[in-house]
Design brief:
With 297 residues, the chain is an alpha/beta fold. It contains 12 helices and 4 strands, in the order ααααβααβααααβαβα.
């Protein structure tokens, strides 16, 4: 039952992440950006309204067995994402190129517009396009690192409880990958050739700087930053709460990350709940640097 409930929550999070990525992929180029926001909010409400029925399709009776073996329970979400994709594609847009900026950082701050004071909208206003690390990333990481830890505990102790925990986490990991891949296929036409990487890959890339046993969000932010750099993005913004330890770890490795990956522009921004004009100035200077470097290619 725990696996099935986790599947319901995961499906909703993945659907939201894909909807949000379509928004960020579309809004910077819209003649009227508010139209893109309206589509996003419309389908976000639709996802929320669909959850009770989706839970029934996943958990009740024989549906439970079917949802473990097939992806038929995802059809309503696929249809909803397909409709959203079509509406985003139909919006009037400008023909222009913008530098693509990866946004990483502390889980809550990066996904909450109030906490990050609309950093993505500010990037767009300064001429960029933002690629936000998905909300699902940390949940996938937590399950993945838990799976590896339980495996190591079982190998050390040979206790049955650790084997059961490892197998449960492995099943969750495989199901999560299947669900995400199935839903992502629907919107690939909008998102292009930039699929998000798995938690395993985030950990592998982040371990260039932080050992996986260290734990926490730092390895996620660094791993995703490396992913963005390898894909050739124009810059990276890392957000964090004021004096956040994982955020400070990321900031400490920023210089080395830039040295390894072509001196890619990377900006660390901290938020303490107060409006700070100097923060906006830092972002404006960062985008000027990005634009100057990007125009040279």
């Amino acid at each position: 039952m725990g696996t099935l409930f986790a599947m319901v929550v995961w499906d909703a999070l993945v659907a939201h992440d894909l909807l949000q990525r379509m928004l960020h992929r579309t809004r910077p180029y819209c003649l009227n950006p508010a139209d893109a926001d309206a589509i996003y909010l419309k389908y976000l409400d639709a996802i929320c309204e669909m959850l009770p029925e989706h839970q029934r399709r996943v958990q009740e009776g024989w549906h439970a067995i079917r949802s473990l073996l097939t992806t038929r329970h995802l059809q309503p979400l696929q249809e909803l994402l397909s409709q959203a994709r079509e509406e985003f594609q139909q919006l009037p847009k400008r023909e222009e190129r913008r530098p693509l900026i990866g946004v990483v950082g502390e889980f809550y701050v990066r996904i909450h517009e109030g906490a990050n004071q609309n950093v993505i909208r500010r990037i767009e206003a300064l001429g960029g396009e933002a690629w936000l690390a998905p909300a699902t990333e940390f949940f996938a990481y937590a399950n993945c690192i838990g799976m590896h830890n339980e495996r190591n505990r079982w190998l050390d102790t040979l206790r049955r409880e650790h084997l059961v925990n490892f197998l449960a986490a492995w099943v969750n990991h495989r199901l999560a990958k299947r669900e995400e891949h199935t839903l992502a296929e629907v919107v690939q036409e909008v998102l292009g050739d930039y699929p998000d990487i798995s938690a395993d890959e985030v950990i592998r890339l982040g371990s260039e700087f932080v050992h996986p046993d260290f734990g926490g969000e730092a390895i996620c932010s660094l791993g995703k930053a490396v992913d963005y750099a390898r894909r050739g993005l124009a810059g990276i913004v890392a957000v964090r709460p004021f004096n956040c330890m994982p955020g400070n770890v990321v900031a400490a490795f920023t210089r080395e990350l830039r040295r390894r990956y072509g001196n890619i522009p990377m900006l660390n921004l901290d938020y303490d709940g107060f409006v700070d004009a100097s923060r906006d100035m830092k972002l404006a200077h960062f985008m000027w640097q990005v634009r100057e470097r990007w125009d040279g290619y």
